């Protein structure tokens, strides 16, 4: 049996090695490393895949979120509603821009922001909502968009863990990230669509907003050396774009492979009452960036340590929610009551899931978890 990893990028690379090596060599031979033809081609191909009018590539997913907020013209002190149960980048950029994060609770089943909690948190200072499609499961975008329209709020989707996901609207299926006013993603190597370094992108169907974000990513320039606003320097380089073009063609296959692993886990863990497997919401297609269990009556930390002894990696995403992080102490967020978020942080455990998992690896993982539960029941 091969060594089990949370994500096996080496084996994945071996399967696309000729195409990747040729693409990288092509960039090296043209020496068009910044904003070269590979970037433009990837941008166009991702627009087509997502069904959006505009994709603006950038340097990483955190930049994508920051640039989106900058382009919306929000002012210091404006409030942005977001879940606390997420990777810190989602919330960090809000504070970085002098905005005020308003943390709300998540749904216990989907791990995503609870739409009912959003409405209760809206004040006259609220200007935007940042839902996170956590672990590959979409938030309830239909309800979130209704709330946003009712209160005239912007919606910025954090789609870093769910690119390629489908959401079923009454008007038809759409890709996650293309529903709100802006969608943001990361191409960090471990993502479902990941490059071989850092990278990110922003999506929108709004022409004016797209133009604003294009200026923000390039030092606020409307044309060379004419700077109309304060911007940043955030670019996806040509080598990463070349890699992403190849992997974009494989993305649906990668998602199907992940879903197959999730199916195996689902069937096996159905026998254990203390294990809750990920909910697959009927309104969307889960793309399983992570496969996250919720444990009840099972010592999560002891199981995590036991798996490590058996050379099985597992991760806790996330042990400390944003509202309890020291960086937000000045906002008084630690006093915020988010019972579901706090409950989940004590119970979630993510298992290995990736495109290259083999049956013997899955059987080894499952049998060891079963052994732990039988011994400690």
Order the strands across the largest sheet as they lie in space.
1-9-8-5-4-2-3
Shape: globular
**Average pLDDT over all residues:** 97
What structural class is derived from the secondary structure elements? alpha/beta
In CATH terms, what is the fold-level topology of the largest domain?
Aspartate Aminotransferase, domain 2
CATH superfamily of the largest domain: Type I PLP-dependent aspartate aminotransferase-like (Major domain)
Helix content: 40-55%
Distance between the first and last residues' Cα: 29 Å
- What is the number of strand segments? 14
Order of helices and strands: HHEHEHEHEHEEEEEHEEHEEHHEH
What Rg is obtained from the alpha carbons, in whole angstroms? 21 Å
Strand content: 15-25%
Shape-level CATH architecture of the largest domain: 3-Layer(aba) Sandwich
3D architecture notes:
With 377 residues, the chain is an alpha/beta fold. It has two domains: 9-104 and 112-245, 3-Layer(aba) Sandwich (Aspartate Aminotransferase, domain 2); 251-376, Aspartate Aminotransferase, domain 1, CATH 3.90.1150.10. It has helices at 9-30, 37-50, 61-71, 89-96, 115-121, 141-151, 207-217, 238-269, 300-309, 339-345, 359-376, and strands at 54-58, 79-83, 100-104, 126-129, 154-158, 166-169, 172-175, 182-186, 200-204, 221-223, 226-227, 275-276, 291-295, 348-351. Strands 1-9-8-5-4-2-3 form a seven-stranded mixed beta sheet, with helices on both faces. A three-stranded antiparallel beta sheet has the order 12-13-14, with no helix packed on it. Strands 6-7 form a two-stranded antiparallel ribbon. It starts with 8 loop residues before the first helix and ends with a helix. The mean pLDDT is 97.
């Amino acid at each position: 049996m091969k060594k089990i990893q949370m994500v096996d990028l080496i084996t994945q690379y071996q399967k696309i090695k000729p195409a990747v090596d040729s693409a990288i060599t092509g960039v090296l031979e043209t020496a068009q490393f910044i904003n070269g033809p590979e970037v433009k081609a990837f941008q166009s191909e991702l627009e087509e895949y997502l069904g959006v009018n505009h994709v603006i590539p950038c340097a990483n997913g955190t930049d994508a979120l920051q640039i989106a907020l900058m382009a919306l013209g929000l002012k210091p002190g404006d409030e942005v509603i977001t879940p606390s149960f997420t990777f810190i980048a989602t919330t960090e950029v809000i504070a970085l821009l002098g905005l005020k994060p308003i943390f709300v609770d998540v749904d216990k089943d989907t791990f995503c922001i609870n739409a009912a909690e959003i409405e209760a948190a809206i004040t006259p200072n609220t200007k935007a909502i940042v839902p996170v499609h956590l672990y590959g499961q979409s938030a309830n975008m239909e309800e979130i968009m209704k709330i946003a329209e009712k209160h005239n709020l912007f919606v910025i989707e954090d789609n870093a863990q769910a690119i390629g996901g489908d959401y079923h609207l009454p008007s038809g299926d759409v890709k996650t990230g293309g529903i709100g006013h802006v969608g943001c993603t990361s191409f960090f190597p471990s993502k479902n669509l990941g490059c071989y370094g850092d990278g990110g992108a922003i999506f929108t169907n709004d022409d004016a907003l797209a133009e604003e974000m294009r200026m923000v990513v390039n030092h606020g320039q409307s044309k060379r050396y004419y700077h109309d606003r304060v911007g940043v320097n955030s670019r996806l380089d040509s080598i990463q774009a070349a890699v992403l073009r190849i992997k974009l063609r494989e993305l649906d296959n990668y998602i199907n492979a992940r879903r197959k692993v999730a199916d195996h886990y689902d069937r096996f863990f159905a026998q254990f009452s203390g294990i809750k497997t990920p909910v697959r919401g009927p309104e969307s297609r889960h793309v399983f960036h992570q496969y996250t269990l919720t444990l009840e009556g099972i010592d999560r930390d002891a199981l995590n340590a036991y798996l490590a002894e058996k050379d099985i990696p597992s991760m806790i995403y996330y042990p400390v929610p944003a509202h309890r992080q020291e960086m937000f102490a000045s906002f008084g967020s630690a006093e915020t009551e988010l019972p579901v978020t706090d409950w989940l942080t004590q119970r979630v455990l993510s298992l290995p899931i990736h495109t290259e998992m083999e049956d013997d690896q899955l059987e080894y993982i499952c049998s060891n978890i079963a052994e732990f539960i039988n011994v400690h029941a």
